Amino acid sequence: MGCPPDLNLACGAAIPPGATNQVAFIAQGGSIFANFCETPGTVNISFEDVQIGDECTGLVIERTYFIEQGPEPGECVQTIVVAAPEPPAIISCPANQ
Question: For a Cys-Cys bond, which of 5, 19, 53, 62 suits 25, CB 3.0-4.6 Å?
Fold first, then answer.
C-alpha cells in the first residue's frame, strides 16, 4: 500500500480529514495493493494522528494509516506540515517628535 502524499500547508489552511474508507483513501492519492482490491468495500481503513507542535510555532501531523483485509494488513505514514504564522513586519516607524 502507499499513503496519500505528504502535504505542506500554509498557516490557517484546512487540514484534510483522514480517509476512513477505500474510496476516500484512493481519492486522496493513496494506493492499495491488487489483492486488497479484489473484493471492493471489504477493506477496513483506520488512521491515527500524532501532532507535534502547535498552530503558533508550526504543526507536524504524522498520520498513520492501517489497512486490514485478510492475512496481509498494511500500514503507512503520511506527514502533514502546517507552517507557522508569519510574524508581523514593521514597515516604518513614526518620526521622533
Answer: 19
